[in-house]
Amino acid sequence: MTKPESLPIRPRPIEVLRQATDACRECPLGARATQSVMGEGPLHAVLMVVGEQPGDKEDLAGRPFVGPAGRLFDRAAAELGWNRERLYVTNAVKHFKFELRGKRRMHKTPAQREIDACHHWLEAEIARVKPDAFLALGATAARALLQRPVAVMRERGQWHEDAAGRRVLVTLHPSALLRGDPAQREAAWTAWLKDLSAASGLLLP
What we know:
alpha/beta; Uracil-DNA Glycosylase, subunit E; two-stranded antiparallel ribbon; globular; disordered N terminus
């Protein structure tokens, strides 16, 4: 008899996945978040862009990449001449993890068990979208896609393959640029654009 884990993932409509992730309590994050945040973009996207998790703005809006880091990514895509309509954007973890500081909800990095608990939702999303390749923004996204620890600073700007032979380009999460030394921001921006440009062959005519 075929083992359950070897069965192919059956593609489910994104709205069905959105409802299922909203109800998910496989880790503690779902109970505290406002709602789950699934990805947005076309089916059969040229590139699936995977971040870490929703931030405060995304959690409230129910949409990915609408906060400061998302806007920085949009700026980079525009500078590179990418058509955003060819990108599907999502996160490795579907609920916002935070800690309260007064009334502010401050981002907190997901634990590995939380990333692992959410991994089947990401794979279900991939099965539905069927992208040509992936862009992993940050260590959480890179580890979720490649299923191994990733040294982002050493492996950034390079294409890798996951266990299924899918191409994954690794780089920093845009929030790393926002948190970085202001004196180094221009150099960091230039280096990040160079990383991202490795995917331009997929997106430009």
